[in-house]
Write a sequence for this structure.
């Protein structure tokens, strides 16, 4: 693995580490006033006090029980937190009194229509030169990082210094939301990371590296659906998802996103990256929809997924495009295959699995859109 790939992997971390990254990124001064909206049970504010014991740490939350838990933890830790019951859309604080506002996994709780009011309130209470540091989920397609960025800009908040993806998962056990097989999980890992890169995300926090239950590895319970979200098995042997992670790191670490590709077939999607090896194009087709395996009752508590080499995508879509002398196709687990163009054209077979292609010719298609030369 290249050092750059290693960098990508080591930037990924669990939620506790994400909290630390948030606090570190906020560069809290020794006497700063820090407000966390949606402070919950105080996990972030306790880290703030460890990083800057002289800081004034204020936590606001709508949930009294969470604040009571935060107060208990503060007593146990011997630190002082100011904890206020209230709504982030109406901050009970004067203008320009806060050096840092932290928002960790709270904005996704706030309905779209209230987001501008919350961001406006954050802007109001920040001192000149103060900053907001936020960590959150992106629930595509409604809450894409680029939409969140636009909302931040509208509220007069600074451009984000670093955009991070709050949590990513590699679920490999059917549950009530996801029904991913080992193969789908690997494909989704590659696609998640490619989409994140396209959105300007520079840091991805993985929910858990190996199967366990977040925060409770000592009582990890395979009957808990959340146990099965790791990139690796519990004995640290790799799942296909880990290979997909390495594939994404190899392709994307030194890549620059150039644009989304559009096609006459509305179910075909593409991302264009420039890389030291030339343009790398990620292509996939959604003719079979977004959710798989949603039918059928899965009563077996243990893992009924087909073997990883069984191709689950029924619909194959063909796309003929202009190509250079050689086209290389990389699948999600990093298997490379050479395709041979004939008379400068190549026919690609697409399905729900994202694949990376080198040797294709992305072109501008007018009004800011891009496509592949046909
Ligand atoms: C997932 S918890 C995150 C807690 C903490 N920030 C962390 O990262 O561990 C989200 C918290 O946001 C709070 N919350 C949701 N909507 C809120 C609002 N409008 N104003 C303030 N807090 C809110 C919830 O009560 C909950 O405690």
């Amino acid at each position: 693995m290249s050092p750059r790939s290693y960098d990508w992997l080591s930037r990924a971390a669990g939620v506790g580490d994400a909290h630390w990254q948030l606090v570190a990124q906020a560069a809290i001064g020794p006497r700063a006033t820090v407000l966390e909206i949606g402070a919950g049970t105080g996990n972030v504010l306790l880290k703030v006090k460890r990083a800057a014991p002289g800081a004034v740490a204020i936590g606001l939350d709508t949930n009294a029980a969470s604040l009571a838990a935060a107060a208990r933890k503060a007593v146990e830790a011997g630190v002082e937190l100011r904890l206020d019951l209230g709504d982030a859309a109406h901050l009970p604080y004067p203008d320009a009194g806060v050096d840092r506002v932290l928002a960790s996994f709270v904005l996704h709780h706030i309905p779209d229509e209230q987001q501008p009011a919350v961001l406006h309130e954050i802007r109001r209470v920040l001192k000149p030169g103060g900053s907001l540091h936020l960590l959150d989920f992106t629930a595509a397609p409604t809450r894409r990082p680029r939409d969140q960025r636009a909302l931040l800009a509208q509220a007069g908040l600074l451009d984000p210094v670093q955009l991070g993806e709050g949590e990513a998962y590699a679920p490999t056990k059917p549950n009530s939301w996801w029904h991913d097989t080992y193969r789908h999980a690997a494909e989704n890992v590659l696609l998640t990371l490619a989409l994140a890169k396209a959105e300007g995300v520079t840091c991805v926090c993985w929910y858990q590296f190996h199967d366990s239950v977040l925060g409770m590895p000592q009582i990890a319970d395979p009957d808990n659906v959340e146990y099965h979200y790791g990139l690796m098995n519990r004995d640290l042997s790799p799942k296909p998802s880990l290979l997909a992670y390495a594939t994404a790191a190899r392709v994307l670490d030194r890549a620059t996103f150039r644009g989304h590709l559009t096609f006459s077939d509305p179910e075909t999607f593409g991302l264009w990256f420039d890389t030291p090896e030339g343009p790398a194009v990620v292509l996939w087709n959604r003719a079979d929809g977004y959710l798989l395996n949603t039918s059928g009752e899965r009563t077996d508590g243990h893992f009924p997924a087909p073997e990883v080499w069984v191709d689950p995508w029924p619909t194959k879509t063909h796309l003929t495009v202009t190509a250079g002398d050689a086209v290389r196709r990389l699948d999600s687990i990093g298997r490379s295959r050479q395709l041979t163009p004939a008379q400068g054209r190549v026919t690609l077979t697409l399905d729900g699995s994202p694949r990376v292609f080198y040797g294709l010719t992305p072109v501008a298609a007018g009004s800011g859109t891009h496509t592949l030369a046909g």
Remarks:
- The longest strand covers residues 317-330.
